[in-house]
Predict the 3D structure of the following.
Amino acid sequence: MARGFFITFEGGEGAGKSTQIRLLAEKLRAKGYKLLVTREPGGSPGAEAIRHVILSGAAEPFGPEMEALLFAAARSDHVEQVIRPAVQSGKIVLCDRFLDSSRVYQGGAGNLDPAYMQEMERVAINGMMPDMTLIFDIDPVEGLKRASSRRGAGQADRFEKEDIDIHQRRRRAFLDIAEKEPDRCIVIDASGNVDSVENLVTAAVFAGLEARTKATAGRAKGA
Ligand code: TYD
């Protein structure tokens, strides 16, 4: 059976990832693709239990290293229980946040040793690198406004509560990843309305799927 396609969605708070994942999923299903839609932290029963510990802030007093380990543990379970089986069965997997969020939120802001972060990433994903990563880029001031109007003021999670400077640094860090890994990452300008962002996402994903089909056909011919 042909291998599926693994797409991750990354970016700051309120960039509109979830809405766009929903719209893309509808479009792909209508075209007959088999899909799995998932998210991090979470996505498997073990990882959802860890999600609660992290996002409630319960792990925060133990420091950034502990939080990074918890994200990695959740990711490992999610990869092995959910993502890898789905990709191996030929599905397109749409995942809301993945390893780049750990690089940016824990690695960038937490002052953690890059070698430690890399090793943890290697163990957590165990070769399951995304085929394509869409990085939703938006000014954090706008993003946080959207995030708070979406869920009502006063209920910000552990990460939304942080300083605007930190959110600006994260934006830069996501863009740096995109620059360093242009074959995997595509920056999506998320500042426009839902329709205009949807057009950018659709164009990027369908181009990626077409390239994959051509590459697979080329390999079959050459074989
Ligand atoms: P969530 O409510 O899923 O937010 P969003 O809609 O922004 O994706 O919360 C996830 C939070 O966890 C988000 O603030 C980013 C953070 N996070 C990390 O810090 N590291 C990680 O590896 C992941 C996956 C998420």
